[in-house]
Amino acid sequence: MISCSEKNGAVDFSVRLQPRASKNEIVGEYDGALKIRIAAPPVENAANKACIEFLAKTFGIAKSQVEILSGDTSRNKLIRIYGIDKTTLLAKFYSKS
Description:
Blueprint: E1 4-7, E2 10-18, E3 25-30, E4 33-37, H1 46-59, E5 66-70, E6 76-82, H2 86-96
Parallel strand pairs: 2-4
Antiparallel strand pairs: 1-2, 2-6, 3-4, 5-6
């Protein structure tokens, strides 16, 4: 199960990002984190920006509501999404994978 925590109207969860994929998609779970494939390369923050855009589009929210808390230069990231609850987050992820 994907580990996530909810506080102050936001949800934090772990992501394992795979850059340079053929398309942007949620793959499933990887070692307690959500695995996401992103087409952008990990150069000049392109993969991070693409990840934020993809998550915002997936949830139908503004990009400003998605934040990378840690892992800017790593495949393992901690993401915060404002304005949703844990139940909504997990339901969306498990319906996509």
